Amino acid sequence: MNFTEILEHHLLDHAYFRLPAVAGVSLPVSKHVVMLWIAGALAVLFFVPVGLAARAGRRNTVVGMVEAVAVFVRDEIVLPNLGEDGRRYLPYFLSLFFFILFCNLLGMVPFGATATGNIAVTAALALTTFAMINLAGMRAQGVGPYVKNLVPHGLPVWLLPLMFPIEILGLVTKSFALCIRLFANMIAGHIVILAFMALIFLFGSVLVAPVSVAAAVGMDLLEIFVAFLQAYIFTLLSAIFIGAAVHPQH
Q1: Which of 63, 141, 182, 236 would staple 145 via disulfide (CB 3.0–4.6 Å)?
Q2: Does 16 map to a domain?
Q3: Do 219 and 193 meet the contact criterion of CB atoms below 8 Å apart?
């Protein structure tokens, strides 16, 4: 296996196994799907005991850390953008933040893979936010007023046929930006790390190895920070977009 094949094997998705056929259809299960299952299972296995311990009043370091992150998401992301209405949507934002974080960090584990480096995964996450934007807006304003408020007030009637499609496109573009931002940032770090390692093979000298390995390790440490940062940014932008739908006057 040459270096190009190693690079593609690490970055691209591929099938691990196939599910038993149902109605003549057998669906493949890829490594990124497996990583999503693991991230979901880890979230359940981690947060259920933590939640039960917090509800029972059993305080420890783990419970304190999780509560600190939850309070940060509530007070610094959700409430500033949605106001008191944000409390009813807090479970969604906490689930979004931690699930993306777990998916990002699993890509740092040996033999793991970054599911959020797959554009299909980030597109699905962006679609959930797109659905929440519209559902929250309709819930807060009503279906008719929400659709009406998609275009600015006071426009001449003859501009409405032009502006309405543009505003709809803008709504879709917000979710598209979420999808591309998370995907590009998570896959870019892995490409840079592998590019540093490729220098060893390109120059064919052991003298290059220490520099390449040191640069790759430094980038790997930066990737841990990026894993947290991208989970935060995705959650923050989702809160901003949903808040704009709930409070169009702002």
Answers
A1: 141
A2: no
A3: yes
Q: Which two tokens stand for residue 130?
A: 């797109």
Domain coverage including residue 242: 3-10+28-246
pLDDT in tens, 36-95: 899 999 999 998 888 888 888 888 888 889 899 999 999 999 999 988 888 889 999 999
- Is 110 inside any structural domain? yes
The count of structural domains within the chain is 1
Q: At residue 244, what is the residue type?
A: A
Record the pTM. Answer: 0.85
Whole-number Å distance between alpha carbons of 52 and 34: 27
pLDDT confidence tier of residue 162, bands split at 50, 70 and 90:
confident
SS3 30: strand
Beta bridge partners of 214: none
E-only strand ranges, the chain:
15-18, 28-30
Model confidence over 63-73: pLDDT tens digits? 889 899 999 99
Assess if residue 15 is contained within a domain: no
